[in-house]
Amino acid sequence: QVQLVESGGGSVQPGGSLRLSCTGSRFTFDHWAIGWFRQAPGKEREEVSCISSRDRNTYYIDSVKGRFTISRDNPKNTMYLQMNSLKPEDTAVYYCAAYRERVCGSAAAGVRYWGQGIQVTVSS
Fold first, then answer.
1. Which of 13, 18, 20, 27 is the most exposed place for a label (fewest CB within 10 A)?
2. Are the beta carbons of 99 and 33 closer than 8 angstroms?
3. Tell me: the pLDDT tens digits for 65-114?
4. How many Å is the Cα radius of gyration of the chain?
């Protein structure tokens, strides 16, 4: 059974940092684009960031550009999201996702596998 397991969430004050990790198993992790989505209470799930499988092209939603950095370590089957300068509006459940495509651009419609989600809370 395919698994995507997130870790690294928690609570932090505004301006703080967190690093999320996502480790995949039982599928060819390095063949596919992978990314992060988030869903805040009462809002739709949105794509936060994506990284392609080979050329490492990246996508970020405008609200996190310059603050978040996505990366992947294929030999470890792991993806990271470094989140700096966190704001209260970043509070959400964050989901790891593996796409059906090698490149980014398909958003939620292109996701093949989802993680269970992990809570990130930014509050003073």
1. 13
2. yes
3. 999 999 999 999 999 999 999 999 999 999 999 999 999 988 888 999 99
4. 13
User: What's at 69, amino acid-wise?
Assistant: T
The percent of the chain in helix, strand and coil, each rounded to the nearest 5, is 15, 50, 40
**Burial class, 31, CB count within 10 angstroms (exposed 0-12 / middle 13-18 / buried 19+):** exposed
- Per-residue pLDDT at 41 exceeds 80: yes
Under 8 Å between Cβ of 36 and 46? no
Q: Which residues of 33-49 are buried (b: 16+ CB within 10 A; e: fewer)?
A: bbbbbbeeeeeebebbb
Read off the tokens for 49: 């960031």
List all residues 6 or more positions away from 28 whose beta carbon is below 8 Å from its beta carbon.
Answer: none
Cα 32 from Cα 11, distance rounded (Å): 30
**103, 100, 80, 81: which is closest to 90 by C-alpha?**
81
Both tokens of residue 57?
């092209």
Task: Kindly report the length of the chain.
Answer: 124
